[in-house]
Design a protein that fits this description.
binds 5,6-dihydrouridine-5'-monophosphate, about 350 residues, three-stranded mixed sheet, binds zinc ion, nine-stranded antiparallel sheet, alpha+beta
């Protein structure tokens, strides 16, 4: 037996096989819980110096079209290049390297410089979902590509270079580290049980659901590391985003808007995070066990300005948290789905 609100314990992340140390008794420390709105100045609808705004020149000299919904282009400073030849290096299994090939796309969510996902109209978020699907399909058509990472890095605190609402897609000929872990765990679970790991987790998880609609659940996973970490999981065990029906895509836009609105309302600030989808590898045979989901990793702890740092024990030994996943879920459950700027 574990007293989850008293006993220090560790929790297993079944998707990665990693553990998080939870120290719930530390929640009894004096708690200020104050809401300091980080006073970011209101941004203009259009910024002539922004390289993502419609009609503006980018750093490499290209000009964005006068786009009026969402817009994708190949990253001018892509981390991966399409023509890198195969290369492998191994010195006594101690110095090992291999070349990586692929591409990187930038996705502008909106022509409006001043918006973010939660502030965008539902039908405009739906257009972003459709664009993700189109991009995914186009990237997958290249048989060299084995994995497609769709993500958003939001907020200065996350090192995001530009406040214009945007995300990225990196596609490459190999499986990244996090995907390798989830790939092995999900496939092993499926082999043993004949159902996906997340299908069975969803069936168990009632406590930590934040919000849901017909096709998706947003929840704080039992094994969350970041204070307000969440996941969006599809109710249907779909492997990749292009398998979603029109109705599911609409529902994905809905759950994205609702979850990110709750996030903004938590500290009455444009809530920073790194978020991204995890989905099955492509062009690499059957992927039974893979279940589409999206992770949100927000760094904020107590207010708009107090950030959690993964340092000390966490850097050297393993992740740790004080507030429990249940506590965080309860706070997120209690928030409005009307954006604080709109009330
Ligand atoms: P992040 O802020 O999430 O890093 O995304 C911005 C990306 O936009 C970044 O990867 C690219 C950067 O390389 N970029 C361009 O492709 N063209 C530009 O003119 C500036 C930035
Ligand atoms: Zn802009």
């Amino acid at each position: 037996m574990i007293n989850f609100t008293e006993d220090p314990h560790k929790r297993l992340n079944p998707l990665t096989g990693e553990w998080v140390l939870v120290s719930p008794h530390r929640m009894k420390r004096p708690w200020q819980g104050k809401v300091e709105a980080a006073a970011g100045p209101d941004r203009p609808r259009y910024d002539p110096t922004c390289y993502l705004c419609p009609g503006n020149k980018r750093a490499d000299g290209e000009t964005n079209p006068a786009y009026d919904s969402c817009y994708a282009f190949t990253n001018d400073f892509a981390a991966l290049l399409p023509a890198t030849p195969d290369g492998y290096f191994n010195e006594n299994d101690l110095m090992v390297a291999r070349t990586q090939r692929g591409t990187s796309r930038v996705i502008c969510f909106s022509p409006r410089h001043d918006l973010t996902l939660p502030e965008m109209a539902l039908e405009d978020i739906e257009k972003v979902v459709h664009l993700w699907v189109e991009e995914f399909k186009a990237l997958k058509a290249n048989k060299d590509i084995k994995y497609i990472q769709i993500f958003e890095n939001k907020g200065e605190i996350m090192g995001c270079s530009n406040p214009h609402p945007h995300g990225q897609i990196w596609a490459l000929n190999d499986l990244p580290v996090e995907i390798e872990k989830e790939d092995a765990r999900q496939k092993a679970y499926y082999e043993k049980h004949g159902r996906t790991l997340l299908q069975d987790y969803l069936a168990l998880e009632n406590h930590r659901r934040v919000c849901e609609n017909e096709h998706f659940v947003a929840l704080v996973p039992f094994w969350a590391v970041w204070p307000y970490e969440t996941m969006i999981v599809s109710k249907r065990p779909v492997q990749t985003i292009d398998e979603f029906s029109k109705e599911e895509r609409h529902n994905l836009a809905d759950i994205l808007k609702r979850l990110t609105t709750r996030y903004d309302n938590l500290f009455k600030t444009s809530f920073p995070y790194s978020a991204g989808m995890h989905q099955a590898p492509v062009n690499d045979g059957p992927q039974d066990g893979w279940h589409w989901h999206m992770h949100f990793y927000p760094p904020l702890l107590r207010s708009a300005t107090v950030k959690k740092f993964m340092v000390g024990y966490e850097m050297l030994a393993g992740p740790q948290r004080d507030v429990t996943a249940e506590w965080a879920a309860e706070r997120l459950q209690g928030l409005s789905e009307i954006h604080y700027k709109h009330v």
